[in-house]
Specification:
The chain is α/β, with parallel strands linked by helices and 194 residues long. The protein has 2 domains: 81 residues, Double Stranded RNA Binding Domain; 89 residues, Winged helix-like DNA-binding domain superfamily/Winged helix DNA-binding domain (Arc Repressor Mutant, subunit A). It contains 8 helices and 6 strands; from the N terminus they run H-H-E-E-E-H-E-H-E-H-H-E-H-H. Strands 3-2-1-4 form a 4-stranded mixed β-sheet. A two-stranded parallel sheet has the order 5-6. Helix 5 packs across helix 6. The longest helix is centred in the first third of the chain and has 13 residues.
Length: 194
């Protein structure tokens, strides 16, 4: 009876034990449940791209893989490990956990903007049923964890200016839009449709 009580106390105490974070990262990696990343060459230069079973989880410009890992951990609260190989097709699924329903709605609407076209922040706000939330749309686009893949660069200001872009400011935004076929004249106007 005394041995059984001690066994029960010992088993309960196991619930308090926390394994080092590297153990969890290793287990998730072996089970292919964690995030992997690679450095990809893009029109905007070298970008680190992370993915997991849910889809593409992050796109960032950093100087090193170690810096990417640190920024990823700070932003998402989990580890990312360097991939052994990059999948041939990263697909069109995205890991948007951690974003609010509003932020997800904004990003999914931005994803509908066709290549070679732009829309305004006001257009996005109206399309998701929140026409007065223009500034909130801009904030949601700034939180886009997967810029380029979810094309927040296709959303511009109603005054005709491009606005900022997380992967290199307005010049990078201009470059990617021009590469997609948006002419310089349209960029001065700032939109193809409002």
């Amino acid at each position: 009876m005394i041995e059984e009580r001690q066994l029960l106390r010992d088993l309960r105490a196991l619930g308090e034990v926390r394994a080092p974070s590297r153990v969890l990262a290793g287990v998730l990696g072996e089970l292919q449940l964690g995030d992997e990343y690679a450095l990809l060459d893009t029109l905007l230069g070298a970008l680190y791209v992370a993915w997991n079973r849910e889809g593409i989880s992050a796109v960032m410009r950093t100087q090193t893989g170690e810096e990417f890992e640190e920024r990823f951990r700070d932003r998402f609260g989990r580890e990312a490990r360097k991939a052994r190989e990059v999948p041939c097709d990263l697909g069109d699924k995205f890991d948007l956990r951690g974003l609010s329903e509003f932020e997800r709605a904004v990003l999914l609407k931005a994803r509908e903007i066709p290549r070679g076209e732009t829309r305004t922040y006001g257009w996005v706000a109206a399309q998701i049923g929140r026409p007065a939330a223009v500034r909130a749309v801009g904030s949601a686009l700034r939180k886009n964890p997967v810029p380029v893949f979810i094309p927040c660069h296709r959303v511009v200001r109603s005054d005709g200016s491009l606005g900022e872009y997380a992967l290199g400011g307005s010049e990078a935004k201009r470059a990617i839009l021009e590469a997609e076929g948006v002419g310089a004249g349209a960029l001065r106007i700032g939109r193809r449709a409002s």
